Amino acid sequence: MLEKTSIFQKAIEAVEALDPQAQVILVDIISKRLKQQRRDELLKEIAQAENAYAQGNVRRGSVADLMAELDE
User: What are the residue boundaries of the structural domains of the chain, listed by start?
Assistant: First the structure.
């Protein structure tokens, strides 16, 4: 954990060494990359859900149906 903290601290120091405009650009780039990573994760989850549905591993019903099934 100490090594990761050290890497994180070095990253912060490197960012602080940039001029303010470069820091803004860096934040924008990181923000966009994080959004893309989240989109990629969602697409992967959607593909998994579609695959489960195609294989018949998904059930449909109301909350009452779910509660009745849990009581069985």
Answer: 2-71
